[in-house]
């Protein structure tokens, strides 16, 4: 491997931190663990090698050096603990669902059908794109696969129908379509635990830091009013802030109908896939409801991860996917290793006492102000610090445990509300930059949105998304009983 600045920078960060005297209040091994952790995060940002490999290197180094546990066997047990974490397998299983969407053609059919029904006007087309993403979101934890892999290939064909190409003619209709698609997937990414890969890992960090366990249903209900407002307003806001020159699009439904005709009738596999998705959503809702009790099973009769794994088994049995499809899906296995190692590393930061030490220092200046104001400031800080990250996962792992610990140390902050606001912001912050979330580079590179427009719109919509989250989310979450 060629040594370049992407390789050397994490190593230099690690070395500098190691030689710095240990701060008061921390033990030597805790500071060395933080030095290793900081190097891993820098590595995840720069990615000189694949992110999963960087996480694995960090875990193995910590295990060998026995930073977290002086006993060699227990150190190894800690290092492998992420692979037994249920949320890691929930994300893996949900990735298999996305294979089913693509292989059966169900995702493409849903997108084309909505475009056909709502695409008579450009604004209607914006709502069709938003609804298509919403329908796919509960079973597609990768917004890159959902928006970049399913929505984008469909809508990429639309602008050319009106002579709208990257460059001078982009604003005819192409720019509006592309920005709406990105904004919509950022909103839907915050709606479900299973609509964005880092959501489940973030909730595991919440459970570790605050002892609060949040179910699939609680997560959905907690974001619902914010989601409704943003889903209704987003296509319209794009229409106002980034208006298309073409307001009507009568040819688009005709094109979509032609594409659907090429696909033929709905297949038995598509119907089976739709049925399995509906079953999974039903079990996610019912299985996590503490008020529902069944004979033999009792309350909370099935865990969210068990539901997802059941869906995988049923897809294999019904031949929606084959075992070879799963084995060959590099993204699913990559995300399994990536999240398993990051969950472990974040847990280690807490175990060595670094998070508690930092939270005590950082929370001191905030203890004299109103708890709600302090909570809003912390959520805003967590949101906009994402400009420094090219990965939502790296941001979640590096910053969320610390922010949660700081909030928990401030008297009067409602921890459930604060925790949910932080996790909900993960999907929304994907709008702020060309590298903020997986689909961003796709829409940035399509040529329909100029560099200046991308950064300007990212800031505008980032402020709007955060404002709606705080203005609606704080009173709503404080009022309801989840």
Question: What strand order characterises the main sheet?
Answer: 1-2
* Low-confidence parts: none
Structural class: mainly alpha
The geometry reads as globular
Helical fraction: 55-70%
Number of strand segments:
2
Describe what you observe in this structure:
This protein is mainly alpha-helical. The chain has a domain at 87-205 and 216-328. The protein has helices at 5-19, 28-46, 51-65, 72-79, 86-104, 106-118, 122-136, 143-155, 174-188, 197-210, 216-241, 251-263, 268-287, 304-317, 323-328, 330-351, 354-363, 371-384, 392-408, 415-428, 440-445, 451-479, and strands at residues 293-294, 298-299. The longest helix is centred in the C-terminal third of the chain and has 29 residues, at 451-479. The model has no long low-confidence stretch (mean pLDDT 86).
What is the gist of this entry?
The protein is an all-alpha fold and 482 residues long. The chain has 22 helices and two strands.
Summary tags:
482 residues; mainly alpha; two-stranded antiparallel sheet; 2 strands; globular
Describe the secondary structure blueprint for this structure:
Blueprint: H1 5-19, H2 28-46, H3 51-65, H4 72-79, H5 86-104, H6 106-118, H7 122-136, H8 143-155, H9 174-188, H10 197-210, H11 216-241, H12 251-263, H13 268-287, E1 293-294, E2 298-299, H14 304-317, H15 323-328, H16 330-351, H17 354-363, H18 371-384, H19 392-408, H20 415-428, H21 440-445, H22 451-479
Antiparallel strand pairs: 1-2
Helix pairs in contact: 1-2, 2-3, 2-16, 2-19, 3-4, 3-16, 5-10, 5-13, 5-14, 5-16, 6-7, 6-8, 6-12, 7-8, 7-9, 7-11, 8-9, 9-11, 10-16, 10-19, 10-20, 11-22, 13-14, 16-19, 17-19, 18-19, 18-20, 18-22, 19-20, 20-22
